[in-house]
Amino acid sequence: MPLYKDNSIKIYNSLSGEKEVFTPISEGYVGMYVCGPTVYSNVHLGNVRTFMSFDIIFRYLKHLGYKVRYVRNITDAGHLENDADVGEDRIAKKARLEEIEPMEVVQRYTVDFHNILNKFNFLPPSIEPTATGHIIEQIVIIKNILEKGLAYEINGSVYFDVLKYNETKPYGILSKRNVEDLLHNSRELDGQSDKKNPQDFALWKKAEPQHIMRWPSPWSDGFPGWHLECTAMSTKYLGEHFDIHGGGMDLKFPHHECEIAQAEASNDQAPVNYWMHANMLIMNGKKMAKSTGNFILPTEIFSGDNEHISKAFSPSVARFFMLQAHYRSILDFTNNGLLASEKGFFRLMDAINAIDDLVPATTSTFNIEEWQQKCYDAMNDDFNSPILIANLFEAAKFINQIKEGTATITQDDLTLLKNTMHNFAFDVLGLVNVTKTENGTEKLSGAVELLIQIRQEARENKDFSMSDKIRDELAAAGIQLNDGKEGTTFTTS
Ligand SMILES: [Zn+2]
What we know:
By secondary structure, this protein is of the alpha/beta class. Helix content is 45%, strand content 14%. It is built from 16 helices and 15 strands. The longest helix is centred in the last third of the chain and has 20 residues, at 335-354. The two termini are 37 Å apart. The structure holds zinc ion. Zinc ion binds next to loops.
């Protein structure tokens, strides 16, 4: 019997503002769409955090036995610099600045995105469609909305008529805004748009003569609106009505609000049952921004090459750190937080590695079944990874007590403990046991220790070129040496 039969999940639905019992549209199947990156620059750590939240949701649903179709798109056209449908296309701008083809920009940053996510041990989504691969589907939806009288064409561009839509269906239900407020608060950028009303949004934009990324349509040679891409791709692969739609908090308005309106207008039904939004990541208590220097790239965490951190951290440690905050809480990225997570991570891995050496007894002094239930309860309660991790630490403490002889465990419980620890730490949280992997890291550890010793001797002999060479060559092989008060340790990435 699949585990989901015994595990009722509660999801915080941004649409209702409440935790709701999750009931999939078809029993045993889940359709989940998450807005992917606009691939015009290196992936931001805040985006990594958002996608990691949905990675563990995907992993947990799979763990429970659901058949999950997880669609996460790549936005490779149509995302303008400004939400008011003005400004340059982000990818076209980068292409102009770097004097390369827009598709070279797309390729470069899609590869970067995948590399970073692989390092963090993400599972790939079931389908990763691109916006440019679905222009025809987008044109079909625009025609549909035009036929219903909920969009209009002006000078080769097509806009969604928010006021007309709002006459029969409320616009703003997700972000809890109403059209009157929007009218008061929006300011038209002079002469840059030919929309009837400022809150209308583009479904199709006529391309300026210099715009390279353009496709033929009944209205003009142009490109689709950003919001429309997600509606086209989610409808194509998950249907007009599907279970979960996720993304970062910043996408709630206008992006997701527009998705709801477009889908309702085109298909006459609400597209999504559960809207989920991951909260922001900040650094040292402040918004992360390149312009202020309060900024770090994911790769700089692995290399230690950033002034805000004192050393390199392995991707698993960084992943563990991020999962110690619930996806709906703001996560503050700090050096101290990472250092504390590193200690915790290795304590947890050491405990998991010690399970195989535990000697069973005739009685257990710890109720493993009850503990296992607490792990499931945590994840069933809106995917509460920090509570789950607290429970894993509780088990680590118990494992250490058995080692010390102050607690006992039966063989059956030992098996259950081991399986549960492995399921949650590796399958659900997606951690990698960097201290002990099947490809012989233990042997590697001996070799690295030897190199650390040789490097120490070289330093004592003031042979710094040798000591630097050892450090750099190991770093190139993915092994970071960390010099601390109590000697040198290493992490692998
Ligand atoms: Zn989207």
